[in-house]
Specification:
The protein is an alpha+beta fold and 158 residues long. It contains 4 helices and 4 strands, in the order αααβββαβ. It is extended and about 70 Å long. It comes from Esox lucius (Northern pike).
C-alpha cells in the first residue's frame, strides 16, 4: 500500500500532536562497558560520607576557545536583517585559537592548573602526574589517605 503523504501535512499533524522540530541535546557517548563501570563505581561508593569524599582529589582537562563556541549559534531576525551588524557573528581563520588546561582540586583547596600546549597523550599525562599530582597528594594527604580521581580517558590509563 503506497500512498504519497504531503510533508507539510505531516509537519502540521505532528505539531497538533504536541511535537516541535528541535535540535537534540548533545550528550557524551557512553559505551555499555563504561556504563557498567560507572554503575559499579556508584554502588561501591553510595554509602560514602562527606568525610570520605573530602579525601578525594579530582582532575580533568578542559579546552577554552578564545573566539567562539563549538556549537551552532542561532538568532532571531527578520528576513531583511541578514546583514544587520546585530545579526552577524564574526569569524576568524583557523578558528581563532584556544587554550587547553589540566587541573585538579579537592575539598580543601584548588590544585595546579597546567597549560597543555598540544594534544594530551600518555607521555604528557605521566609527566603531569609526576610533576603535579604526586606533590599535591603528598601535601594534601600526608598520611596517604587520599584518592586521586580521573575520568579514565585513554591517555589517563598510562
Amino acid at each position: 500500500m503506497q500512498q504519497n503523504i504531503c510533508e507539510a501535512t505531516t509537519r502540521t499533524t505532528l505539531r497538533q500532536m504536541g511535537y516541535n522540530s528541535r535540535r537534540p541535546h548533545r550528550v557524551p557517548l557512553i559505551s555499555t562497558t563504561n556504563r557498567q563501570k560507572r554503575l559499579q563505581f556508584a554502588r561501591a561508593h553510595q554509602n560514602w560520607t562527606v568525610e570520605d569524599w573530602k579525601n578525594v582529589a579530582w582532575s580533568d582537562v578542559s579546552r577554552f576557545l578564545l573566539r567562539h563556541s563549538d556549537g551552532r549559534v542561532r538568532i532571531w531576525r527578520k528576513q531583511n536583517e541578514n546583514m544587520d551588524p546585530s545579526c552577524l557573528v564574526t569569524t576568524v581563520q583557523a578558528g581563532g585559537g584556544g587554550v587547553m588546561v589540566w587541573g585538579m582540586f579537592s575539598w580543601h583547596t584548588l590544585g595546579p592548573l597546567v597549560p597543555i600546549g598540544h594534544c594530551l597523550n600518555a607521555t604528557a599525562y605521566l609527566s603531569i602526574v609526576s610533576d603535579h599530582v604526586h606533590p599535591f597528594m603528598t601535601t594534601m594527604y600526608p598520611s596517604s589517605d587520599g584518592y586521586f580521581q580521573q575520568d579514565n580517558a585513554p591517555c589517563h590509563k598510562a
